[in-house]
Amino acid sequence: MKALDNIISIYFYLSPVIDVAILTFLLYQIYTLIVKTNSIQLVKAFVIVGVFYALAFLLHLDTITWVFNKIAPVFIVAFAIVFQPEMRKIFLKLGQSQWFAFGKRSKHTYVDSVLIAAEMLSQQKRGMLAVFVRHTKLEDFIKTGTKLNADLSSSLLVTIFGKDTPLHDGACFIQGGKLIAAGCFLPLSEQYDIKKTFGTRHRAALGLSEISDCVVLVVSEETGALSLAYDSKLHYDLKIAELTRILENLLEITPDSYEVEDTIDEHKGSL
Hints:
Blueprint: H1 2-36, H2 40-58, H3 62-82, H4 84-96, H5 110-123, E1 128-132, H6 139-142, E2 146-151, H7 154-160, E3 171-175, E4 178-184, H8 200-211, E5 215-219, E6 226-230, E7 233-235, H9 240-250
Parallel strand pairs: 1-3
Antiparallel strand pairs: 1-5, 2-4, 3-4, 5-6, 6-7
Helix pairs in contact: 5-7, 5-9
């Protein structure tokens, strides 16, 4: 009992600190939520109404206070209707917040966007050549294609490597979640022991990996097999789980760099 009394006394001693810490955390999260959803107008409206009501109450303006009290329910409904878009954004963001999430949420990186596109193209027997830039500068090869500097997405990659598109036959360059360029030409490997069944894409992927530290993802147009070329070696017909593990390791993607993306699964349902 003495130990329990000690714990209770410690709790009562620390409770003000815990109280302030929780309140600070909640206020910070509310502030972040408002900033991210651009709901400043909603806050301004709350503040204006609150200031008017406080002044009426403090100055004993009974008529105004009475009116406020009577129209409060109607005002709340009208407020919700007028600011419905802002409130919708807040609740949507609130539902996506990790600190309100129970259980495990799926998290993704730009690697997943590339692999989703690669898997789709594999099923359609469409070729793909994607270069993940690491430390070696590859400007000379990037210049051979069309510079894009676009946000990376599976939809964009599927469009680029679709049938009869202008950039279909070249390679795309990816760095830090950005699609730097597409339709680029790569040097072919000079190795003599490459399987004769490997086409130009595999030879090009291997060729670039021989002169740089990049990682090149290849989707075979003939078989649909997914392969990786790095460190002057070609690793043929890999599964998605293995591709993810290797790419995240080579590209030094840590759990801190994972992001919750609500549009990442836009094509997964069709796979």
